[in-house]
């Protein structure tokens, strides 16, 4: 009997082999007898997705060129292919299965990441190898949130039947098919329709990407349309002690005159010392327990706020620590751990403290429901440190980013053992005639867990020693001030407030009035793992830009949103419906095929309406903004020269007209051509002499650029004419 273990990536596979006690490495796999599984065992691995859906052009060569009349394209059967970049690894796995698994006793253990996408990676491979189905090979599932050897051994001895997790593959596959059909069809159609409106560029559409972009778009509109309004509030000010008391009733007045009239009715004159009395002093000891354990969105929020890391970057850092075995599985939306994790943290608490030279009183050595709840850990528990502790030497070799993230995770893992943060909250109420004003102060009693989490420090806010019935008079002056304030526009979104914990992607249900829709959006749109990818994609595709950690719409993003404004594809409600239907697949309440048929109907109906949306929504002003013209084309004289970017990121400056082939390349002879130089060339048909060009022999030279015979060519000084040439 032979068992083949399929991991998701090489590092993961090698950790599994180590835990299983096999070490005969053969390049793409490791084999040997495992005392844990008590069978001859082969551990191999994917490299992410090895099998994927085919491009449209692989159904029919006519789709190599985009023609509007060919869309929508909805194949009756989805085609799949071995992905070319990782094809060698697929065929290695295929060979291993066909060679070694030939009897009913042979079996496969899926050991990819314990999540929907891990399930998708595995079954995309296995379903593409006929030998697996033809021989009815037994498949079991490793569902492990750790890469710590001892824990892995326990998980390998408690495998799940494949039927427990296979519905997760069906859900993930349905999501992939839907994204493929929606993305390809609407991207092609929108791009071509916009081109017909003289808007160049590639405009991608996505099931989750597009409504996410619209969240930023709507926030941007709210900021732009916001009109400041002045309002006025009241403050009592203790001159001797320099203490402000706010209006206890929190009144707001629309004008200063209204505030003055109000005060006069209560026999109060501004800018004059008033009589007042301390009416009440209350004091209460309060305490706060440590924050919840971290989920992916939580550590992303923390890192974005504290160090400015993007969501994608933070996920990558946590993933690198997970791959090394120092933290638990990162793609989690859970803030709880089970009793098993609590016990190993509790047992080695002193050792964990030593990693950060920390020393605190561990008050809570028993599990508490805020942090430990076996029933609430469904797929993955919270992100915590593992049993594997980095030595001082190893920790010093971490990158600065890894140190920051590991420290944050360790601090949050340990904080639940520390005591509560305790403080004395004091409130003082002041009466001026019949108006009440109030102020408060806070005195720390015990720092508790705040000594563990480094960015949670609080300072004392000490009030003077007021006494009840003490009076304000001329010797102890009290003034009433009218404060002029302005309403503030909505806050600009950050990556964290969009895709992190508590962000719009997670809490978009609050934006919906319909209760059924609101319920569908209880988990938000996207998953903890995909949210960071979606936000990063919107930035890389230049729909959004980041400045000082804030998100801004680009002209390109605006025109996409203008084109699809008030349509179903831009709506979080539609995405919510789809997410509910997708979840029902893994819950076995509906089939993958039923969902895909619904998606196909939607694509057909939306495709019919799309041209009308663009005609109604896109104006000449929109076109001009996105075109970013650098000047009139010197050849056709009718259209504009615009800046474009190739797939490899290099710039070029073509004519907007489809019938004109004129272009200025963004790089000539190893020198980048700058926008001011492009404008100079367009205006005068020639630039001044430019430095920094290099010949094929890597020799530097100088030359002007000029337009000649509908091309951009070099114009050399007379002595160098013989060395001239074209791009």
Ordered list of secondary-structure elements with their pairings:
Elements: E1 2-7, H1 10-20, E2 24-25, E3 29-34, E4 39-45, E5 51-53, E6 80-82, H2 87-100, E7 107-111, H3 116-126, H4 130-134, E8 138-141, H5 149-156, E9 160-161, H6 162-196, H7 209-225, E10 230-238, E11 243-247, H8 256-265, E12 276-288, H9 296-307, H10 311-323, H11 339-347, H12 349-355, H13 392-397, H14 400-415, E13 421-432, E14 435-446, E15 471-472, E16 478-486, H15 495-499, H16 504-507, H17 515-520, H18 528-540, E17 544-547, E18 550-553, H19 555-564, H20 572-586, H21 592-617, H22 620-627, E19 631-632, E20 640-641, E21 644-645, E22 651-654, E23 663-665, E24 667-668, E25 671-672, H23 675-684, E26 690-694, E27 700-708, E28 711-715
Parallel strand pairs: 1-4, 1-7, 7-8
Antiparallel strand pairs: 2-3, 3-4, 5-6, 8-9, 10-11, 10-16, 11-14, 12-13, 12-15, 13-14, 17-18, 19-20, 21-22, 22-23, 24-25, 26-27, 27-28
Helix pairs in contact: 1-5, 3-6, 6-20, 6-21, 9-10, 10-14, 19-22
């Amino acid at each position: 009997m032979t068992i083949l273990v399929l991991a998701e990536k090489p590092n993961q596979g090698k950790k599994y082999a180590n835990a299983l006690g096999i070490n005969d490495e053969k390049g793409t796999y490791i084999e040997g007898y495992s005392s844990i599984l008590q069978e001859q065992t082969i551990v191999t691995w994917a490299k992410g997705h090895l099998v994927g859906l085919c491009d449209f052009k692989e159904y029919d060569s006519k789709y190599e060129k985009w023609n509007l009349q060919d869309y929508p394209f909805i194949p009756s059967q989805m085609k799949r292919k071995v992905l070319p970049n990782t094809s060698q690894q697929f065929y290695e796995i295929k060979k291993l299965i066909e060679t070694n698994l030939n009897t009913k006793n042979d079996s496969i253990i899926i050991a990819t990441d314990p999540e929907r996408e891990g399930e998708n990676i595995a079954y995309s491979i296995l379903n593409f190898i006929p030998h697996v189905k033809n021989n009815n090979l037994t498949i079991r599932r490793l569902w492990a949130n750790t890469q710590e050897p001892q824990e892995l051994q326990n998980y390998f001895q408690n495998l799940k039947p494949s039927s427990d997790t296979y519905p997760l593959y069906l859900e993930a596959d349905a999501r992939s098919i839907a994204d493929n059909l929606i993305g390809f069809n609407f991207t092609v159609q929108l791009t071509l329709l916009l081109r017909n409106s003289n808007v160049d560029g590639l405009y991608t559409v996505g099931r989750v990407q597009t409504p996410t972009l619209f969240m930023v778009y709507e926030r941007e509109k709210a900021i732009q349309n916001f009109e400041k309004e002045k309002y006025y509030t009241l403050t009592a000010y203790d001159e001797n002690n320099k203490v402000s008391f706010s209006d206890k009733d929190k009144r707001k007045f629309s004008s200063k005159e209204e505030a003055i009239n109000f005060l006069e009715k209560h026999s109060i004159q501004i800018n004059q010392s008033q009589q007042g009395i301390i009416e009440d002093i209350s004091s209460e000891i309060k305490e706060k327990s440590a924050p919840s354990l971290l989920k992916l969105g939580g550590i992303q929020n923390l890192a974005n706020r504290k160090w400015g890391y993007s969501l994608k970057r933070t996920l990558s850092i946590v993933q690198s620590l997970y791959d090394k075995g120092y933290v638990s599985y990162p793609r989690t939306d859970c803030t709880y751990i089970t009793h098993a994790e609590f016990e190993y943290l509790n047992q080695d608490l002193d050792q964990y403290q030593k990693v950060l030279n920390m020393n605190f009183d561990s008050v809570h050595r028993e599990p508490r429901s805020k942090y430990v709840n076996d029933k609430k850990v469904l797929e993955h528990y919270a992100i915590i440190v593992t049993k594997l502790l980095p030595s001082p030497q190893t920790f010093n070799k971490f990158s600065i980013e890894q140190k920051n993230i590991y420290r944050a995770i360790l601090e949050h893992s340990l904080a639940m053992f520390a005591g509560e943060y305790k403080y004395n909250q004091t409130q003082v109420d002041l009466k001026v005639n019949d108006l009440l004003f109030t102020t408060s102060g806070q005195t720390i009693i015990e720092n508790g867990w705040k000594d563990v989490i480094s960015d949670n420090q609080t300072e004392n806010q000490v009030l003077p020693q007021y006494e009840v019935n003490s009076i304000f008079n001329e010797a102890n002056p009290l003034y009433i001030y009218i404060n002029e304030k302005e309403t503030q526009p909505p806050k600009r979104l950050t990556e964290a407030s969009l895709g992190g914990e508590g962000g719009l992607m997670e809490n978009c249900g609050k934006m919906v009035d319909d209760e059924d829709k609101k319920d569908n959006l209880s988990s938000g749109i996207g998953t903890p793992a995909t949210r960071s990818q979606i936000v990063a994609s919107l930035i890389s595709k230049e729909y959004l830009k980041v400045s000082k950690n804030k998100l801004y719409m680009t002209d390109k993003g605006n025109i996409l949103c203008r084109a699809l404004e008030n349509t179903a594809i831009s709506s979080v409600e539609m995405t919510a419906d789809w997410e509910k239907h997708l979840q029902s697949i893994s819950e076995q309440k509906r089939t993958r095929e039923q969902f895909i048929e619904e998606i196909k109907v939607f694509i057909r109906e939306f495709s019919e309406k799309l041209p009308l949306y663009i005609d109604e929504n896109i104006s000449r002003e929109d076109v001009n903004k996105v075109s970013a013209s650098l000047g009139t084309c010197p050849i056709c004289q009718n259209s504009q020269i615009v800046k474009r970017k190739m797939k490899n990121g290099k710039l070029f400056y073509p004519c907007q007209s489809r019938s004109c082939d004129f272009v200025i390349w963004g790089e000539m002879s190893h020198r980048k051509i700058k926008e001011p130089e492009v404008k100079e060339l367009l205006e005068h048909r020639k630039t001044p002499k430019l430095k920094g060009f290099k010949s094929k022999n890597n020799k530097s030279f100088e030359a002007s650029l000029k337009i000649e015979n509908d091309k951009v060519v070099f114009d050399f000084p007379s002595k160098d004419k013989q060395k001239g040439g074209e791009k």
